[in-house]
Amino acid sequence: MVQKNFPKKKPKPKFKGKGPQPAPTLMRVRLPRGNESLGVVEARLGQGRLRVSCYDGKARVCRIPGRLKRRLWVREGDFILVQPWQFGGDEKGDVIYKYRPAQVQWLKKRGHIKEITVDLEDF
Q1: In the predicted model, what is the mean pLDDT of residues 69-76?
Q2: Domain boundaries, the chain
Q3: How far apart are CA 105 and CA 78, in angstroms?
Q4: What CATH topology corresponds to 37-113?
Q5: C-alpha span between 5 and 82 (Å, rounded)
């Protein structure tokens, strides 16, 4: 019986991706254009719909379009970009983009997102 010399397999790392992450150096942030507006997700309503409080002062029920439904995971408190509908634009809209935490920090630093302060005297 002849024994063949096969190359040895390298052991797999036990914890994949748990090491130090490289710092992002260059970041592009999508800003609102035209009638688009920034918004914060208030609640998930099911069936790909969300209740969003927009920065133009309106609350909208927004839907996630089919092309983004499986790729875009949105939770309450996330910052998103909303495009109002042509008909019923004050109440309804589409989700175009979801901002990542680093992008949200950049938007806050540049003044595109204003901090919301709640006065306790109003209650």
Answers
A1: 88
A2: 37-113
A3: 12
A4: OB fold (Dihydrolipoamide Acetyltransferase, E2P) (2.40.50)
A5: 61
